[in-house]
Predict the structure.
Amino acid sequence: MKALSFIAAVGSMLGSALAAWQPEEVPDDIRKLYVESNTVISETPCDWRDTVEKIFRPAVEHCNSPREAVLYIAANMTNLTGVYYSIERRRADMNALEALEEKKVSCSGQTILMVCAYRSLGIPARAVGIPTWNHIRGNHSWPEVWLNGEWHMIEFNEKDFNTGWVMENIGMLNPDDPMQKILAVHPAGQYSFPVYHKHKIPCIDVTERYRKLSADWYAKYGPPADQQRLMVELVPRPEKDILYVELLNENGSVLDTMPLPIKTDDVRKFATFSMPRAGKHFLRLKGTKGTLEVPSTPDAVQVLRIQTAPAK
């Protein structure tokens, strides 16, 4: 009996070690909508839970809390699955099994797979997205997870909540443009999720919450009060030749030089400067003489698109 008791005790200790964290208790409506539901956006329904859980359950056995598990999964999505972002993906809203098989996915595919990963572990998660940015073309989507009674924004292969480039871009949105609302999937919503397909996926408006998150991000990580972030691109972007743009002060001194994005670069890439607010500033293509004065604006971030002359 003593030997059996010892074995049972060891088994219990091992079980505790393998389950260092448990999902938080959540309201029934959150659990039904964002844990038990098998669909995330508009993907083709499939039986994904066993396959997805077998990948992610062992990966987070070392974690000590739901928060730690959420961040570990986010930071290691490609390492754990081989799935990565690609414009060559077959379609935008692939389901989790399709994403695991094809490996190439859009941001929507990344979101779907990541939400399924969290739901497979009992962590509530849902899709959030925006139809279009203010300064770059295209939509975007990302996951949210429910922790400590709140929704938290996280992204594929990111190490922390509230991804910097998203927070910065949210700070440049036009609050009066209905196409720049931030939307979260919810069956009672009056909006439709921003994925290019024929389905109408109901969503609720969460823009104001994200504008507050963005304002907090700018206060911590944005440019100081005496500086402005200046983002520059040529339109149309060069096919392949990398050109450089210089930032000059009013005395003609070069303050910084940055490479301009080319056609194959991500639409989020710009030549980005930290520009003093005091005095006048000018842009010049490296190796040329002509300059363009930078307009003065009160914004924390300014985007300049320089129209290039058409080829003769």
In short: The chain has two domains: 12-221, 227-307. Confidence is low (pLDDT under 50) at residues 1-18. Residues 227-307 form a domain with the Immunoglobulin-like fold (CATH 2.60.40).
